[in-house]
Design brief:
By secondary structure, the chain is mainly beta. The chain contains no helices and 18 strands.
């Protein structure tokens, strides 16, 4: 982009029709000094009250989605699914960022506190087709599952595959119901061709492959995105996910 007569002109106008065309490479502008080559922010420690500029909500933000903290985590409240829920195309409280590269790995640590059966939290690759790896409360267990949905905008249903289960852990608090929670590490590796493979860990050291490979697809005006969510199918008392960090590596 350059300024022409106090207007921003995007790209290079090769055919002189007044409209700039995108470029894949371009010379670095002279900004007065040398700066190291960097990329836009991707990873996030969630250690301030300001959400990183790489994050975008799937719909206009509401205070009920959760809150940032300076305590080293972001809390995502379980968003209520509609009574007519079909797939995540309708879910507004998806915390997402655009794919930062053709190939990358995204890993997150989250602690999911559930209040009702059916609540779930996880990591999602979102677009016209989407897939996510999540933990869902079912009785005294958390179910690890992979969900795939094709042509989500066309109201196609999700395909759910249960992969493993873990016993819930309890936090006893005087005078209130026990909190049922579990800490998990979730990972998605994106390879050439937008092929995504999920994995999980319970200790942050040993990761186990989970589910089937999924090919990401662009969304409507948004491209393919990766991020986090926490939802509930029920009204009433809602659970939450405390996300410690989100890391993007090669």
């Amino acid at each position: 982009m350059k300024w022409v007569n106090e207007w921003p002109v995007i790209g290079v106008d090769k055919d002189k029709d007044g409209c700039g065309e995108p470029v894949t490479t371009y010379k670095k502008p002279n900004v007065g000094k040398m700066y190291p080559v960097t990329t836009p922010p991707e990873s996030d420690k969630f250690d301030t009250r300001h959400l990183g500029l790489q994050w975008q909500w799937h719909a206009n933000k509401q205070d009920t989605y959760g809150f940032t903290t300076d305590l080293g985590y972001i809390r995502l409240y379980a968003g209520s699914l509609s009574k007519e829920f079909v797939n995540f195309w309708e879910v507004p409280n998806l915390l997402l960022q655009k794919f930062p590269a053709e190939e990358f790995t995204a890993t997150t640590k989250l602690t999911f506190t559930a209040k009702q059966d059916g609540e779930q939290a996880g990591m999602i690759v979102m677009g016209w087709d989407y897939s996510y790896l999540s933990v869902r409360k079912a009785g005294d267990k958390f179910i690890l599952q992979q969900v795939v949905c094709k042509d989500a905008e066309q109201q196609h249903p999700e395909q759910v595959k249960e992969l493993a289960s873990f016993p819930v852990e309890y936090l006893k608090m005087p005078g209130v119901a026990d909190n049922e929670w579990k800490t998990v590490y979730l990972r998605v590796k994106v390879a050439k061709g937008a092929v995504c493979t999920f994995a999980y860990s319970l200790d942050g050291k040993k990761y186990t492959a989970a589910g089937e490979p999924f090919t990401a697809r662009q969304g409507k005006w948004i491209g393919a995105k990766v991020g986090l969510f926490c939802v509930t199918p029920n009204d009433g008392n809602r659970g939450w996910a405390d996300v410690d960090w989100f890391r993007v590596t090669k």
